[in-house]
Design brief:
There is one protein chain. This protein is of the alpha/beta class. Helices cover 33% and strands 23% of the residues. It has one domain: P-loop containing nucleotide triphosphate hydrolases (Rossmann fold, 3-Layer(aba) Sandwich), CATH 3.40.50. Helix 3 runs antiparallel to helix 4. The longest helix has 14 residues. Adenosine-5'-diphosphate (ADP) binds next to strand 2 and helix 1.
Length: 257
């Protein structure tokens, strides 16, 4: 890890799946220490962008650097909270086992012996996300909000320097969402956070910069964007309301209520 390098640097990145181009010619620098929100319409390539940053998806063209190095080399510095709805929960495994995976750093789940330090960290993360009392429960028996918090606990068990979250509050009620944002804000004093979100509260109150993705990178900067940009990104102003992009976006540049 190079201390002075940006947390994430994408240069001319295009990526996709067989015939589908999800991202085209993305250039994006995210400084270490930032709290970045990624917004954009469904199917716009947000999850794909996180996968490219994680080294889970090799880009077709261009270069990806995480703290100045190949994503594979820096993989164990990165915590990942995948989109909860994309995961099959029929697998017979407990909450504690899922969170413990955060300590594996690529080693086998079944033959690994966890150290006292590992176990302390696992309990700490379970407690921090308020799921310690669910630790022995099978993951298939959790509510969507509980499952979401388990995924965050697993990512924190990595003790990441960079945390990537994919719609981490989509299954949570307002109280639980606020708890997660407060936690992220606290973590952000020490680590870099990149979060895909549709949540207006997060964008207006917590996130310090936003990247707008719809196939291309349309904007990266302060979280107050013009109505023209929203038109370009989401297609039309009706969509804008449907997607819940913050009110103040229009106020600041359009002068409209
Ligand atoms: N595993 C996959 N195989 C084929 N196409 C995919 C796969 N994952 C995503 N896509 C396609 O790539 C595009 C971008 O998807 P995605 O990154 O999931 O968008 P978002 O997270 O913004 O909703 C979409 O057209 C989607 O259908
Ligand atoms: Mg997605």
């Amino acid at each position: 890890m190079k201390e002075t390098a940006p947390a994430v640097c994408l240069q001319n990145v295009s990526a996709g799946y067989s015939k589908i181009t999800a991202l085209e010619n993305i250039n994006l620098n995210i400084e270490a220490g930032s709290f970045t929100g990624i917004i954009g319409p469904n199917g716009g390539g947000k999850t794909t962008l996180l996968k490219v940053m994680l080294g889970l998806l090799e880009p077709w063209t261009g270069q990806v650097r995480i703290f100045g190095q190949d994503p594979q080399e820096n993989r164990r510095l990165v915590g990942y909270v995948p989109q909860a709805t994309n995961i099959n929960r029929q697998f017979p495994i407990s909450v504690r086992e899922v969170v413990s995976m955060g300590r594996l750093a690529g080693k086998s789940l079944f033959f690994h012996r966890y150290s006292t330090i590992d176990n302390d960290m696992i309990n700490h993360c379970l407690t921090r996300l308020d799921v310690l009392d669910l630790a022995e429960r099978q993951i298939g028996q959790l509510s969507s909000g509980q499952w979401q918090r388990v995924l965050i606990a697993r990512a924190l068990a990595v003790e990441p320097v960079l945390l990537l979250l994919d719609e981490p509050t989509s299954g949570l009620d307002a109280n639980a969402s606020s708890m997660v944002y407060e936690l992220l804000q606290e973590l952000n004093r020490e680590i870099t956070i990149i979060m895909v979100t549709h949540d207006t509260l997060a964008i207006s109150a917590y996130v310090r910069d936003i990247a707008c993705i719809n196939h291309h990178l349309h904007y990266h900067g302060e979280p107050d964007i013009s109505s023209e940009l929203i038109m370009q990104l989401y297609g039309c102003p009706v969509d804008l309301i449907a997607h819940g992009v913050p009110h103040r976006v229009l106020e600041q540049h359009g002068g409209q209520p």
